Every structure is written in C-alpha cells, then in structure tokens.
Amino acid sequence: MNLAASDLTELADLAMVAATEAGQMIARSRPQNIQHKEGADSMASQVVTEVDRQSEDLILEILSPTLERFDLGLLAEEHDDNGSRFDADHFWCIDPLDGTLPFIEGIPGYAVSIALVDKAGTPWIGVVFDPVEATLYHAIRGSGAFRNRQPWVIDPQPASEVLSVFADRSLVIADEGDLFDDLERVAHDRDLTGLQLHTTGGAVMNACQALANGPACYFKFPKPVGGGSLWDFAATACLAQEVRAVATDIHGDPLDLNRAGSTFMNHRGVLFATDEALAQRLRAIHQSRTGGSGLA
Q1: Angle, helix 5-27 to helix 50-69, in steps of 10 degrees
Q2: Cα–Cα dist 77/79, whole Å
Q3: Tens digits of per-residue pLDDT, 132-191?
C-alpha cells in the first residue's frame, strides 16, 4: 500500500501519542520483577523488566488499528518476529524501552522508540520520547526533524571544544585503548581540546545525544553476534537523515533496517556522526583496525 503524505502525518501523530503516553508511564514507574532474556550477548540485552512489556502493550493499543487500515507489518522487541515486515510495504519498528540498564539504575539514557520502515529498510517516520527530560523527537522523511514539535536544526559548525563520543559500556570493558588514541588524534586534527566519552546511555539516547552535541559520534563496530537490533536504530536513523547528519553502517552504506534472517545489526555495524568528515575518519579507524589502509 502506497502511503500519501497525509497518511504519514497521521501515522506520525499516532506514534507521537503512543511514545509520549508510554514514556510518561515509564517516568512514573520503578523497575520490579527484573528478568533475563535467554541467548542475549550483553548485559543490556539480557535484562528486561515488566515495564518494557507494559510500555509495548500501551503502544500497541494505540498503533494496532493501523496495521489493518494501512496494511502495515509489525516488529516489536517484546513480541516474536512474525515476518510481516517482509510482506507489507511498511512496518512499525518498536522499542518500548531502550536503555533498560540506565532505567534500572535510575540514571538518564533510556527512551521509547517508534519507527515506520519500508520493506527496503528505509525509515519514513522516527519518533523518540525521552522520559527523563520529557523530550519528544520526531521526523518524517523529507519533512524535517522536530524536538518538542519545534524544528530541530543542527549547527553545521558547533561551538563545542571537544569531540563527544557516545558508546556502549562494552566498548570500555573491552579495553579499547588504541581506539581511544585514534579518537584523540581525530579530535586533535579538528583543533579540538580532546574527547568527552559517554557510555551510560542506551542506543536510542546515545544517537539523539550525539546528534544534539556536535561534533559527536556514536558507533558500534561489526562483531560476531549482537550489535543491537533494528528497533534500536530505525527511529534515530530517520532523525539523523532529516537533520542532515550521518546514519550509516560502518562502511558508509545505508543501515540494513529490514535484515533478513536476524534482527541484529552486528554484521555491518552502526555509525552516527554529526558530519560526513567525522564519519569518514571513523570508517578509516575501523579499516585500520581490520587490516585496511590506516587513518584518513
């Protein structure tokens, strides 16, 4: 089913209502009955709370009527992948509570994320609600990005004197010392005073904060398993494209947001950056670490 501009506006409005109501519920909640998912590859992906499921139920209560009306598929973190994302022209891609670890710890870094993605893997709608700051981000492909319903524009020459690097905790645990040396070199070459490393947030807020605090990046290098899932990056990829930032895999190709055979993004990695020059340096760092030609 082809979606008209008016359809996309209506669907985005519903997604904003769903994300806001779920986020407000999360803001009132405290994690109890913490459980662990089998087969997960990291602490963040192992932990789930009853709030995750309550949030998803609330979101689906609002969005489920659109599945039949607009012939949409569905991919939601707390439900089994039924394959409808391969049959429908578009599908909802839902993370009801990204950043479960910071939520459990009572620190910022968690969010609700809802995207509408087409069969080819292109995000058309991206909605994120930050329960801590009560901030709503949204974008419709080709129509710009918004923060709290006001136009969201990124300064192409931000005033920050440091390079902000957003990363998962596992990056630090893995003792990536030479990687940080490489990043320090990037900061030096841009006449910046150094790095500011942020490792406490989930994937969704890491991407949003990277977009909002340039020059900045958020990345996940390819690895054998895991690497976050489609629902971790679909909404923020839409936000990034609408603020003219970078959201690609580690090789510079579009994110594979409807991957067959798996929902994980480990196969090609993920890279968000506030400008293309920074993204190119990150890609060069990855190439140098895997036998490539070295830093750009």
Answers
A1: 160
A2: 6
A3: 999 999 999 999 999 999 999 998 888 899 999 999 887 765 555 688 899 999 999 999
Q: Are 41 and 28 in contact (CB under 8 A)?
A: no
Q: What whole-number distance in Å separates Cα of residue 68 and Cα of residue 23?
A: 25
Placement of tokens 């991407």 in the chain: 207
Task: Give me the residue label for tokens 């579009």.
Answer: 254
Backbone angles phi, psi at 194, to 5 degrees: 155, -160
Give the list of residues 6+ apart from residue 276 with CB closer than 8 angstroms, or none.
246
Q: Give this prediction's pTM.
A: 0.92
| Backbone φ and ψ of 87, nearest 5° | -95, -40
